[in-house]
Amino acid sequence: MYSVLSEKIAFSTHAIMTAADLPSGLPADRFLDRRHLWRAFRVANLYRLILAALLLVTFALDEQNRLFGKHYPSLFLGTALAYMVLALLGVAGSYWRRPSLVVQAHWQMLLDLAALTVMIHASGGLTSSLISLLITAIAASSILLPLSSALLSAALGFFLLTGSWLIAHWYPSDAPNKGVRLPDNWSDLLEPLRDVSDSWVRLGVIGAALFITAGLSYALAERARRSEALARRRTWELLEIAELNQGIIRHLHNGVIVVDRADQVQLLNDTARDLLGCAKVRPATPLAELSTPLQERLQDWRAGGADISAFRPIAHRPELIPRFTRLSGSQATNVLIMLEDFEQVTERLQQIKLAALGRLTAGIAHEIRNPLSAIGHAAQLLQESGGASASDRRLGQIVYDNVKRANRIISDVLDLARRDRVQPEHIALLPWLDSFSQEFCRGADSPPPAWSQTVDPVDMQITFDPHQLRQVLWNLCANACQHGARPGEAPLVALCAGIEPIRGRPFLEVRDAGPGVAPENAEKLFEPFFTTRSKGTGLGLYLARELCEANRAHLQYLPIPEGGSCFRITFAPALATEMDRWTTAMP
User: Fold this and answer.
1) Ramachandran angles phi, psi of 340, nearest 5°
2) What pLDDT digit, counting tens, does each position of 571-583 carry?
3) What's the pLDDT tens digit per position in 330-352?
């Protein structure tokens, strides 16, 4: 679908690049294609070659009447042969393109004027029918030459004809053995000019025709060049717009399908192909072959159905929400279908709700933290009081412990409200994990666990906010220390990083050797305030997942059949996001 557009754009780009070599005097428009000028020059040389051949054939077959070259046959024959050879060289030069076009066009103009004037002189001068060929030659030269050169060719043609007429008057062809009849004095030299005759009038008419032909030919050629340049400019603009529209449609997050009146697919972007789970689609594919449920909902919409329900194209694919719109203008019979991932829509709504809830809870948390600080301070004073009994100290400790728990919940809620403050960086994972492992083992509340880590490849890089990655890993490793140890054994924390073989995205796994998560609790792990510990807040894993989502990563729990738990963080591509690649590809 996009290949034809790419070929057109490549052709237009090549035409614009070759237009920079236009000869001087022609319009310096970057949308002119110089190849057309070379093609016109080649056609003109082929015309000269055919003309020379026809003149030679006519001369050879008509020996009795001598329509051409009857006054000087040998001169006509030699000139025609030379003209034919030079026309062949002109054809070769048009393919070789050396020297430049403007030089070859000027030389060809001089050749036409000289050769045709000699053949006209050999065929009877002004009374010869070859005069029309001289006018045609000047018209052909004016197409390729600038205006000054076109008018110069007309002037040269007129002067050469005048000279030929004077030579014919001084040296008549009917007296070749008498020699040149020179005038007796210089006043007699201008005698032909004083004699106003039909030849003189004819010469003036021919001269006017030459200048009119040169001017009109140049004006028409210039108009044609300007029209072609304007057409190419408009074509280039349309192709740019078409390319931009195709790029936008191709990279939309929503699926886009256009079907005609017969429900045959006219346009299908990559997102729609991925959502429907179909392979390469051939042109004019029936919509029913792509998705029968989508075809049914299109028929319901055409029948006037207002409430179009979501559908699942394939069993393992997410539900899709279709939206139908009829196009306008010449595409009024076509229907535009927009496909949205139901899970993404739900996730966006959930994010909006969570953002509003985060702002609300952040405000409440700030208000609650102040009285909690006062309560915690009072509980500490009660414990340190000399007159307090043992039961009072125990009650004070209970109050203080619960104040600390409430403060942890408030801190987690505030961290959740600040999840949009993401500053992702490119991180070399191996040295970063070495630094993190030393910090975690020094700062762990319990005895340091048995630690192991592997990174393959060793130079792997990820894109993540370093502070938030530390927060996520600290939470996962702390859970591994608390829940990932069998009775009587030291906790084991294993970090394993690698590259996914299919999608090519980097991942990091946090594993332990504990009993694992019960199946009934696996689906609730990332829900807020879900915990199996009496002193837990239930926000650790939820906050970890939210921070991963904010960094375009994904956190999931993977059970290990042989025992233990595994939490995998799948990172975004480290080099560039899809939008970055699209922005870079824009002209």
Assistant:
1) -120, 140
2) 987 544 444 433 3
3) 777 888 888 888 777 776 776 77
Rg (CA), the chain: 45
User: Distance between CA 37 and CA 23 in Å, rounded?
Assistant: 10
Tokens representing residue 493 in the block: 């924390």
CA 476 – CA 186 distance, rounded (Å): 118
Q: Amino acid letter at 128? A: S
8 Å CB contact between 453 and 433: yes
Q: What is the pLDDT of residues 350-391, one digit of tens each?
A: 677 767 766 777 677 767 777 878 888 787 777 777 777 778
DSSP H helices in 385-486: 390-417, 429-443, 466-483
Closest by Cα among 514, 511, 528, 522 to 566 = 511
Decide which of 3.40.630.30, 3.40.47.10, 3.40.50.150, 3.30.450.20 is the CATH code for 253-342.
Answer: 3.30.450.20
- Calculate the CA 528 to chain-centre distance: 44
pTM to 2 decimal places: 0.43
Q: What does CATH list as the number for 345-417?
A: 1.10.287
Q: DSSP states of 279-331 as a string?
A: -PPPTT-BHHHH-HHHHHHHHHHHTT---PPPB-SSTTSPPEEEEEEE--GGG
